[in-house]
Structure formats: structure tokens, C-alpha cells
Amino acid sequence: MESAPQTIHPRGGQDETAPQHDAPQGGPVPLVDEISALWGELLDRPEVRPEDDFFALGGNSLTGIEIIERVARDYGVRLSVRDFYLAQTPARVAGLIERGRSST
Predict the structure, then answer these.
(1) Rounded to 5°, angle at Cα 45 from 95 and 47
(2) How many CB atoms lie under 10 A from the CB of residue 39?
(3) Is there a contact between 73 and 35 (Cβ–Cβ < 8 Å)?
(4) Which parts of the sequence belong to the Carrier domain (predicted)?
(5) Domain architecture of the chain: domains with CATH
(6) pLDDT per residue over 22-77, tens digit each?
């Protein structure tokens, strides 16, 4: 996101009469919240928190594969079944996605 140009005084201060722009409202949703929402959708749960355990929420192998496929489609990161099962929480899966993004 580009910042708005600012008027600078010769002494180095900002011009208080220059138009000020507020940060946009409703910024991007954090990745962990997106993953939690995905789990909630596929596990038919109204709320999934970042530290909730996949298996404790009723997750099984078929749902795990669905999540792995959605992550690959939506985020361009291919998680192994082993890594997904070891991660077990939306927060840890989000971390795997971030690492996968940074390695490409």
C-alpha cells in the first residue's frame, strides 16, 4: 500500500495543514483467522479458535484431505498429510503456509 504524500517544512517537520489520510477500515483478515474459518466450514463448527485441535473438533482423514486441498488451491502451498496432522491447530497450519509461501 502506498502512503499519501506529505508536505515537509524546511525545518524538517510535517505541514499540519496538509491533508491527512486515515488507515483504511477493515484491513486484511489475518491468515490464522482465514484458516480457522475454513476449518469451521469443513468441520461444521460455528467457531474454531487458533489453538483448537483438529482431532478434538472431530476432524478425520477425509476432512484433513479436504483442508489440504483447499490450502493448495487458495494459498498455493502444498502441505503433506504428515505435516498437517502434526500441526493439528489452525495457528500451526497458518505457520506452515507462511513458511511455504516464503520458500517459493
Answers:
(1) 60
(2) 23
(3) no
(4) 26-101
(5) 31-102 (1.10.1200.10)
(6) 434 567 789 999 999 999 999 999 999 999 999 999 999 999 999 999 999 999 99
And the C-alpha cell for 50? 487458533
The pLDDT value given to residue 25? 56
C-alpha cell read off for 49: 479458535
End-to-end C-alpha distance for the chain, whole angstroms: 22
Residue-by-residue DSSP string for 21-74: -PPPSS-PPPHHHHHHHHHHHHHT-S---TT--TTTTT--HHHHHHHHHHHHHH
Whether residue 5 is predicted with pLDDT greater than 60 in this model: the reply is: no
Contacts with 16 (C-beta within 8 Å, 6 or more apart), sequence order: none
Is-contact 54 91, C-beta < 8 A?
A: no
Q: Which among 81, 99, 97 is positioned nearest to 38, based on CA atoms?
A: 97
